[in-house]
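Customer escalation, tier 2.

The customer says the design service returned an amino acid string that "doesn't look like it belongs to this structure." They asked us to rerun it and document both sides in this ticket. The original structure tokens are below, unchanged.
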């Protein structure tokens, strides 16, 4: 699984971007919020969600871990696939989406093109408690840092891509002390220091 990608922008459009990493171009579908935040050219770093299907491997890129976490949360709802989740994140920023879900704002959710009232109600019903708990745990603020679980999942995926066995990588990650503000990159550096000894 690809969890993070850094490289030069080779092509950028409203719904996807191609990132050149060492001469290999990776095509990532992106929400409009990420599109507007990306420069026209130069180096970028995107958090990646990898979808593996029988006939394809699809990559979805996000500027922040919060966007990626919300994308994964949306996918947990029956009837919401990657295209719908990207569409939702294209029309509502992460804080706005969290607010709409936490307050069960069905009118705002159903105002997103392609989201009917029934889907909006299902999103509000099934995600309200998860979002409200996350916001409450942060003193009413939106999430600033990804949860350690997401960081560890991404770090584990990256270590396995580097050729480490899952069990060995998992044990190393479990032994690390992870600061609340730590990024996947920080965790990887710490894990690699242990693994290369």
């Amino acid at each position: 699984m690809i969890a993070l990608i850094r490289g030069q922008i080779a092509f950028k459009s409203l719904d996807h971007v191609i990132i050149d990493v060492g001469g290999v171009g990776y095509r990532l579908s992106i929400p409009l919020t990420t599109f507007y935040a990306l420069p026209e050219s130069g180096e970028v770093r995107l958090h990646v969600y990898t979808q593996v299907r029988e006939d394809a491997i699809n990559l979805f890129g996000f500027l922040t871990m919060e966007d990626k976490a919300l994308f994964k949360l949306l996918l947990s709802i029956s009837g919401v696939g990657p295209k719908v989740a990207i569409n939702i994140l294209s029309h509502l920023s992460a804080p706005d989406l969290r607010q709409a879900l936490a307050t069960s704002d069905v009118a705002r959710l159903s105002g997103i093109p392609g989201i009917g009232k029934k889907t909006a109600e299902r999103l509000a019903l099934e995600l309200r408690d998860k979002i409200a708990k996350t916001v409450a745990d942060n003193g009413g603020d939106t999430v600033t840092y990804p949860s350690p679980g997401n960081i560890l999942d991404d770090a584990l995926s990256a270590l396995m891509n580097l050729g480490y066995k899952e069990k060995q990588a998992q044990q190393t990650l479990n032994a690390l002390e992870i600061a609340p503000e730590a990024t996947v990159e920080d965790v990887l550096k710490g894990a690699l220091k242990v693994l290369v000894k």
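Tier 2 assessment: The sequence is consistent with the input. The chain has three domains: 4-62, 65-137, 148-195. The longest helix spans residues 117-137. Sent an explanation to the customer and offered a walkthrough call.
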